[in-house]
Structure formats: C-alpha cells, structure tokens
C-alpha cells in the first residue's frame, strides 16, 4: 500500500514539474485573444436602444431590454413617461408591427378595489429598476436557446 501511494505521489510531482516548465501563451488566457500586455480600448457605446434586436428577446426570467433611448424620460411619483405609451391593460402586442409599443404585462397591474380601473403596481412603477436600455454592443455569449413564451 505504501509503495502504491509513493508511486502515485511521485507521478503527480513529476507531472506538476513538467507542466510548470511549459509556458502558456498570453493569447490563450481569458476570453480575449489579444495579449494581456496590450492596452485594449473598449468600443464606445451609448444606451440608445440601437442594436437591441436579439438582446431584446430576453432569456427566461430576465426582463426584456428597452429598445429605445430613455435618457430624456423622467420618472417621478406623479409621472412615468413609459406608461404614456405602454399602459394598455389586457392587450398584447400586434404581430408584425414593429412600431407598436409592447404593452405592460398583466402581472405589473393591481386593482385597489373590485371593479376599479387597473393601475401599474408601485413595485413595477419604476421600469428602469428591472429593464435596462439596450446598447449597440455585440453579445459576449449568444443565446441560442428557445425563445421564452410571453
């Protein structure tokens, strides 16, 4: 038993020494294929909603991205500019009309009393807490899975 243990341990040590003497090119380390010694300049981007085509189709459980600019949109207690276009309780998006705003999902609405008009829940009133504006940047990892059912 001691002899077998000694053989296994010595084999591991020889293997580690052999690996330690081989160098790995820096182009093989990490996601970037450039040298780790090069200073990479990131691609400039703007949160303008452009390029949201594939990214706007979110994975399961992830809120979809906002496919338009929102820098000028103000959200306060009295006013939410998102609701002006997207507040259509009980409706779904018309198929084939890309200019038709996505309606707020029914899960975002509440009613204080039976028969009262539905209103957006306070927990869902500030849209930017969950939904982020899309940026025109390439996906690091492509989502090739099935599209979620909405």
Topology diagram in text:
Elements: H1 2-21, H2 81-86, E1 109-110, E2 119-120
Antiparallel strand pairs: 1-2
CATH homolog superfamily of one domain: Flavocytochrome C3, Chain A
Straight-line N-to-C gap: 62 Å
Shape: elongated
Instruction: Give the % helix.
Output: 10-25%
CATH architecture of one domain: Orthogonal Bundle
Q: SSE order in H/E notation?
A: HHEE
Could you characterize the architecture of this molecule?
By secondary structure, the protein is mostly helical. The chain has a domain at 44-93 and 101-136: Flavocytochrome C3, Chain A (Flavocytochrome C3, Chain A, domain 2, Orthogonal Bundle). The protein is built from two helices and two strands; from the N terminus they run ααββ. It has a two-stranded antiparallel ribbon. A hairpin with an 8-residue loop joins strand 1 (109-110) and strand 2. The chain is elongated.
Quick overview:
By secondary structure, the protein is mainly α. 17% of the residues lie in helices and 3% in strands.
Write a concise keyword list for the protein shown above.
150 residues; mainly alpha; Flavocytochrome C3, Chain A, domain 2; two-stranded antiparallel ribbon; 2 strands; 3% strand
């Amino acid at each position: 038993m001691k002899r077998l243990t000694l053989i296994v341990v010595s084999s591991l040590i020889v293997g580690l020494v052999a690996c330690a003497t081989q160098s790995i090119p820096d182009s093989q380390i990490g996601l970037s294929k450039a040298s780790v010694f090069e200073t990479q300049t990131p691609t400039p981007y703007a949160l303008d909603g452009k390029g949201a085509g594939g990214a706007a189709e979110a994975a399961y459980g992830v809120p979809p991205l906002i496919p338009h600019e929102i820098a000028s949109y103000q959200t306060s207690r009295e006013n939410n500019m998102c609701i002006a276009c997207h507040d259509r309780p009980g409706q779904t998006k018309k198929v084939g009309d890309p200019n038709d705003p996505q309606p707020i999902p029914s899960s975002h609405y509440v009613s204080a009393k039976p028969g009262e008009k539905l209103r957006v829940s306070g927990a869902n009133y500030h849209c930017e807490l969950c939904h982020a504006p899309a940026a025109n940047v390439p996906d690091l990892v492509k989502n090739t899975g099935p599209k979620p059912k909405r």
